[in-house]
Amino acid sequence: MAEEQILAGFHAVKARLRHAPDSLMVIHVDQGRRDRRMTALVDAAAAAGVRVQPVDAARLDTLSRGVRHQGVLARARALALAVDVDELLDDLEARGEPALLLLLDGVTDPHNLGACLRSADGAGAHAVIAPRDRAVGLNATVRRVACGAAETVPYITVTNLARTMRALKERDIWLIGTDDQADTDYHGVDVRGAIAWVMGAEGEGMRRLTRETCDERVRIPMAGAVESLNVSVASALCLYETVRQRG
């Protein structure tokens, strides 16, 4: 049986309705809410042939397990995304497409991971890769913040991030880490080929071995009083620099 997921909030449910309506088992909606936004969602579900079940707010709170749901929650079958780095890279090589990956070294805040996934989707990144330990998983909060990107961007967890980075090097993928002590800023590197941007954890940055395994390190110029950007903002800047250079 396919793994079941809970999608909470309008963005997550609408994104699944657009991309994979057949995976939706049922959409629960707040029976007391009849505004335009809710009506549009219910109409879209009906057009896609997805069952809608009105329930009271207390039932939604129970099903969402504390995640903010905005009166909308769906039960869905998990989508089949790449779950293995080699599988992903083999597919990219077969298509002749240069890899664009985002590696997160120990991001534990679900809001940050959700925002990183959303940026990765917008920039056309092929996957987000993170260590299995010391990192947040794809929980309901991540999916809500990602606004549907958790359903389109593979989130691949690995046992040993440094070992995975070395394997990426063997596949001719250039690893660029962000480091506020680096001499070169992120505009000054050529990112038109196969690359992986490497981001550190909130507050701590990259671990020593992760930093040493990078092929190159760059900084994001900071003109104000704060020393660094939030990891999701830094990820968006670097991913979109690749988009800019690739044209």
On the 0-100 scale, what is the average pLDDT? 90
What is the CATH homologous superfamily assignment of the largest domain?
A: SPOUT methyltransferase, trefoil knot domain
Q: What portion of the residues fall into strands of 2 or more residues?
A: 15-25%
Helix content class: 25-40%
Give the low-pLDDT segments. none
Which structural class is indicated by helix and strand composition?
alpha/beta
List the helices and strands and how they pair.
Blueprint: E1 4-8, H1 10-19, E2 24-30, H2 36-48, E3 52-55, H3 57-64, E4 72-77, H4 85-95, E5 100-105, H5 110-123, E6 127-131, H6 140-146, E7 155-158, H7 161-170, E8 174-178, E9 195-200, H8 208-213, E10 216-218, H9 231-246
Parallel strand pairs: 2-3, 5-6, 5-9, 6-7, 8-9, 8-10
Antiparallel strand pairs: 1-4, 2-4
Features:
single chain, 247 residues, alpha/beta, 60s Ribosomal Protein L30, Chain: A, Alpha/beta knot, 6-stranded parallel sheet, 4-stranded mixed sheet, 10 strands
